[in-house]
Amino acid sequence: MPALCRRCSARAILKRPKTGDTLCKECFFEVFELEIHQTILDSKLFRPGLRVAIGASGGKDSTVLAHVMKVLNERYKYGIDLFLLSVDEGITGYRDDSLETVKRNEIQICMAGAWTRSSSRLV
Questions:
Q1: Per-residue pLDDT tens for 18-47?
Q2: What is the pTM of this model?
Q3: Burial (CB count within 10 angstroms: exposed 0-12, middle 13-18, buried 19+), residue 37
């Protein structure tokens, strides 16, 4: 018998190590986003008008962070200006694929990007 979601009784897809809760996909997303939102509120992380750079490597962690921050900023009206920040070290072939992924994410997530060719200068 498959495990059921603790919140809605749908078929669970995972068991959270943090809590032991079994959750379906939709409930996991909801709980994950609510926990991040609560952390932002508890720590008074942002104030309206801030420009916030999200370090973007092109990997799954920075991609999820950018997506979730955009969703939460719109949903809860933090009033912050989010943008992706990535460094192109200028070494041919070193990070070409991951930088292209960041550029695609910038378009898909609808978030501005800042690029630099030197680690000593921000654009």
A1: 999 999 999 999 999 999 999 999 999 999
A2: 0.81
A3: middle
